[in-house]
Amino acid sequence: MASQAQAVAAPALAVQPKLSRDDRIMRGFIVLVGVWMVIAVVLPLYFMLSKSLEDRAGDFVGLVNYAQYFSTPALFYSIGNSLTIAAISTVITISLAFIYAYALTRSCMAGKGAFRVVAMVPLLAPSLLPAISFVYLFGNQGIIKGLLGDNTIYGPIGIVMGEVFYTFPHALMILIVALATADGRLYEAAVSLRAGPVRTFFTVTLPGIKYGLISAVFVVFTLVITDFGIPKVIGGQYNVLATDIYKQVIGQQNFQMGAVVSVVLLIPAVLAFVADRIIQGKQTSALTSSSVAYAPKPRRSYDLAMTGYCALIGFLILGIIGMAAYASFVQFWPYNLNLVLKNYDFDVMDGGGWASFTNSLRLAAYTAVFGTAIIFTGAYMVEKARGFGAVRGAIQFLCILPMAVPGMVLGLAYIFFFNHPDNPLNFIYGTMAILVICTITHFYTVSHLTAITALKQMDREFESVSSSLKVPFYKTFTRVTVPVCLPAILDVSIYLFVNAMTTVSAVIFLYSTDTALASVAALNMDDAGDIAPAAAMCMMIFYAAATVRLLHVLVTRGLARRTQAWRAR
Amino acid sequence: MGLCKYSRLLGGVAIAAAAIGLLGGTAMAATELTVYTAVEAEDLKKYAERFNADHPDIKINWVRDSTGIVTAKLLAEKNNPQADVIWGLAATSLLLFKGEGMLEPYAPKGLDALDAKFRDKASPPSWVGMDAWVASICYNTVEAGKAKLPLPTSWKDLLNPVYKGHIIMPNPNSSGTGFLDVSSWLQIFGEDEGWKYMDGLHENISRYTHSGSKPCKLAASGETAIGISFAFRGAKSKAAGAPLEIVIPSEGIGWDMEATAIVKGSKKMDAAKTLVDWSITKKANEMYNEGYAVVAMPGVAKPVEHFPPSVAEKMIDNDFEWAASNRGRILAEWQKRYDSKSDAK
Question: Which residue of A has its CA nearest to B174?
Answer without folding.
Answer: A251
